[in-house]
Each structure stands twice: as C-alpha cells, then as structure tokens.
Amino acid sequence: MHPLAERIQKQDMRALARAITLIENEDDAKLSLMSDIFSIQKQAHYIGITGSPGAGKSSLINRLLTYLRQQDLTVAVIAVDPTSPFSGGALLGDRTRMNQHFLDPGIFIRSMATRGSLGGLARATKDSIRVCDAYGFDVVLVETVGVGQSELDIMKVVDTTGLVLTPNSGDVLQIFKAGIMEIADLFIINKADLPGVGKLKSTLEEFMMIVQPKGWEPPIVQTVSTESKGMSDLWAKMEEHQSFLYRTDQGVEKRKQQLKLEVYDLIREEIWREVKTKIEEDDQKLEVFRNPDADPYQLAHSWFQEWMRKGGG
Ligand SMILES: Nc1nc2c(ncn2[C@@H]2O[C@H](COP(=O)(O)OP(=O)(O)OP(=O)(O)O)[C@@H](O)[C@H]2O)c(=O)[nH]1
Ligand SMILES: [Mg+2]
Prior knowledge:
By secondary structure, the protein is of the alpha/beta class. Helix content is 54%, strand content 12%. Strand 5 (160-165), helix 9 and strand 6 (186-189) form a beta-alpha-beta unit. Helix 3 (30-39) packs across helix 7, helix 4 (57-70) crosses helix 11 and helix 7 packs parallel to helix 8. The longest helix has 33 residues, at 249-281. Magnesium ion binds at residues 57-58, 90, 94, 143.
C-alpha cells in the first residue's frame, strides 16, 4: 500500500494534508495513492454546499461544524476557491470565520485552489473528498460557489447538495439559468433574518411544481448563520436525505451514475495526458501554431486520428 494511504488509515492528519497537496499538484504518484484510497474508503456522508458568492456558505458551514461537533461527529471541510490562489480574499475570510475550529482534532479544513489543466480543480476536489473519507471523517462538507462546469462536476460526487439562497438577492434567477436548481437536494434560505423570506419560499415552491421531482422532494430550510439558527433542522434534513438514498433505488442509481461519470472522467484525463505528450514531443507539428489561419477543428481531429492509428501510443 502507498505509505501515505497507510498513514491516512491510521488517522495521521499530516499525511492527509500531504496527500491533498500531492493531488493538487497532479503528481504522478497520485494514481497509485488514489487506488489505495478507494480500497479503504469508509462511509462518510458527502455534502456539497453551493450558492452565489456572499450567500453565507462559509458562515453556514462554520455553524454547522459547531453543531456537528456537539453531536460527536467528526467533519472535514473542503472549500473550493475557483478564483485561483491570487484572489486570497475569500480564502482569508473563510480562515478567520473558521479559525476557532483549527485546534480541534475532529475537524480538518482545507482550501483548494488549483491551477489545474483539464478539470483540474474538480478532479482534485473529488479525490480530496475520498481521501477525507478514507481517513474516517463522519461528514465531508464541500463549499463551492455555484458557477461553472467544474463545480457542477464536483456536485456530482456528493450524496447531498444544499443550495444556499438569500432573500431579495435575485440570485434565484441566476441560479436557475445556470441549471443549478436541479441539482439541489435541499434549499437553504440563509439570512432568513432579512425581509423577503416568504417570497423566496413561494418562488421555490413554484419551481418544484414545475419540475415535479420524483421520489425526493427537496425540502426548504431556513437558517440564520450569524445567529446559529436552523442548524439542527438543517442537519435533520441532510440526514433524512441520506437515509432516503440508502433506502431507495435512487441511492443505488446515483452511485452507479457517479461511478460511470468518474470512470469517463478518468478516461478523458488519461487520453488527454497521452495525446498531449505525443504532440509536445513533436516540435515539427507544433510549428502549425505559427500559422494564425490554421483550422483548430481540423488540427485537433487529425492529431487525434493519428494518435489512434498508432494504437494510442
Ligand atoms: N444578516 C445575515 N448575514 C449573514 C448571514 N449569514 C452570513 N451573513 C453575512 O454574509 C456575508 C458573507 O458570508 P460568507 O459566509 O462569507 O458567504 P460565502 O457564501 O461563503 O461567500 P463566498 O465564499 O465569498 O462566496 C458575511 O458578511 C456574513 O456575516 C445571515 O444568516 N444573516
Ligand atoms: Mg465562503
């Protein structure tokens, strides 16, 4: 077994942090590590928290953390910052907000910021979730700002997705357009201390009348993160959703889908790595990039065909 995997299994937190760094750097050693990690995965509840910037995701996670620790549950938090290491702002905010938890051994907090190539950030986040699971956390919480494909990708591996909305912000329309409403297993109306809760609630109810979810109907939960209000209700609904998944075919179906997507993802990654290496080895071919009129479709197609003809090697 990979030495890091072995140490993670023994709940060595430094090994956990090292493993995630390895994953972020897309180190080649990652592949053997991840295979071992898969074999020691446990039964953590994977929860995604998504929503517009400033909706209160970090505040919510912070309060939920406190609540879960009171229930004697151990928790890993992965905060995804798609805006690269340069922004820093959100990250710093999260740090201070979550600071109080840093000394608790039942908690692990990590921000992901990957320069990443194809699907880099999503891949790294998904792998990190697995690593936290292998370590043995009861709950893995993932915070992402609900924009972009890579975040939708991340949400495909979690069991329960909570979508954080705020009254009077107009973010529902944005989120609806981005196709994010559909992935919510739970609507969380945060900042419920502000006016407009009733209106937002009826908008969500109208939405559900239109889409008519089968089996699981996403409940609407109200929270005030700044006052720790609504945490036990929120957790109850999250647990309810998890037991729904275990109880019904939908859970099995979801896991099958997740496995399939994961395999597709990895195939795509592997092919890309191979093709890219081949292209970059061939200086002559790269010359075509000097021609501003080159047809990218044609080039991509012919390079791929050639790679296939050579038996993919
Ligand atoms: N009134 C009110 N303000 C809140 C509540 N929850 C969070 N806030 C405030 O909203 C602001 C943004 O909170 P964050 O937790 O950083 O939001 P976020 O969604 O994590 O933001 P990003 O990570 O930047 O996308 C902060 O100033 C919080 O104090 C709430 O329930 N009520
Ligand atoms: Mg945040």
